[in-house]
Each structure stands twice: as structure tokens, then as C-alpha cells.
Amino acid sequence: MPEMNQTRGRSSAFWWGLIIVLLAVASNFLYWLRVPQRLIPWINLILPAIGLLLIIIGLKRLWPSGRLWAKILGIVVTLVSATVFAFSVWLFVHVRDVPGPAGAPKVGQKVPDFSLADTSGRSVSLTELLTNPMENASRPKAVLLIFYRGYW
Length: 152
What we know:
two-stranded antiparallel ribbon; 152 residues
């Protein structure tokens, strides 16, 4: 019985590391929560690093136990965690390579005239929408565009 408790004590760092790596993968979905955007890349970088470090510490503690399943599981989890960490580092470095919306209009800026097809397939221009009054209404001040995904 004391041997089992010693194994549990030695493997706790390994399992905590695995949980933290899984949280690191889940942290990629923080963009949809109200978390400050400047913190998310750092969270996505630090969590897998801490998890990988704990897994390596746990693996070093488990390795002398001599159990084959523990060694195989440890190697697989370490490789997967290292891959998650490497991907997080790659994303952290290359996320700044995405070009900004240089040509996009700013808030309040007038957009150039364009034409799009409406739901019936008729071509409608922006100036036409802004100059023609709607039924029983005055001339519109703004236009709301809704893009449907269409039929696949």
C-alpha cells in the first residue's frame, strides 16, 4: 500500500501538467469571452509551457518505477504536449504577420459605391439604396448589409 501512495505522489505533477495542457488547448476559445484581448496570446503561450514543464517533471519521477505502460503513456503525452507548446509558440510569433484591414473603411467614413445582387438576383447599388425612399418612409440615413452563406 505505501508503494501505491508513493507512485501517486510521484505522478501528481504529470497529471497536473496534462490538465494544464488541456486547459491551454481550451484557452484558444477565450476570444469569445470577455477577456482582455492583449492577454490571450500570453495565456496561450504560458499555459502549455507550464503544463509541459510539469509533465517533464512528472515523467522524470515516474520513469524509475519501471512500469512499461507509464513509460509509454508518459512519452506519448510529452510528445503531444511538446507539439501543443510548439504550435502555441508558432502562433504567438506569426499572429502579427496577418495584415491589418488597411483598405477597410473606418467608423463613420463613407464607403465607395458598389453594387450587389439582392435576394431575388436584381443588382442594387449603394447610392440607389440611400437615395430611394422606402415605402411610407423618408430617405434612409444608413444601409445595413447582411451576407447570407448561400446554398452549398
